[in-house]
Amino acid sequence: MNxxxxxxxxxxxxxxxxxSVCTVFLRGCPVHCHYCHNTALQGGSxxxxxxxxLDMIHSSQMLISGVIFSGGExxxxxxxxxxxxxxCRAMDVKVGVQTNGxxxxxxxxxxxxxxxxxxxxxxxxxxxxxxxxxxxxxxxTAKVQRSLSLCREAYLTGALPEFQVVVTLFxxxxxxxxxxxxxxxxxxxxxxxxxVSGGLTPLSFNELKGLADKIQRPVRIRTRDDGEVTYKNxxxxxxxxxxLTDILQARRNY
Length: 254
Description:
This protein is α/β, with parallel strands linked by helices. Helices cover about 35% and strands about 25% of the residues.
């Protein structure tokens, strides 16, 4: 089986909170976000075998305990992603996916077969704005809603160990936060991600804190300059960083 391959980062300390991981990028995405940093991966072709990708992951195994599949949209390649996840399970490497939620059937299969440990679900905007802002058909919105629902249920029942909903924010879209927050239970990680695009001045850390104060729930705030912090009741609770013991444990398991 082949994969439409987009790239590989041997070790990353920012893609999975508290873990050192490698990151595999897969090509193809039906959603064309104006702020996408990987526009080159929205199309094109670079066919590689699943075995070649697993060899890349294995080459990083001494320093990692997980792999993140990103894109593009990794869930677009359902069969290939499942095969890759199975290979990671055989290596005792945890599996995470960064997704826009457009292919809920892929997420459902990964959860059903216990092949996934983390879903990072990017909710782009309030539901009624999806067709116009992202230039997608109305049925795409329903698919993202389905992904949110099944991941939420799997997380609450323990079938999905980690789940976070991420909202990437730009000036002028601040009102989306309160709307999306109501869709996400308080016991699920809710991430306010600083959007960076073109000539727009990004929202500052203090502006993102102000949005968190308005929705009155714990959030994680991610900015380019400050990294990721947990913010609750007007206080920064945790400054997240890579857990070095994770690397040591990975070395021992190698």
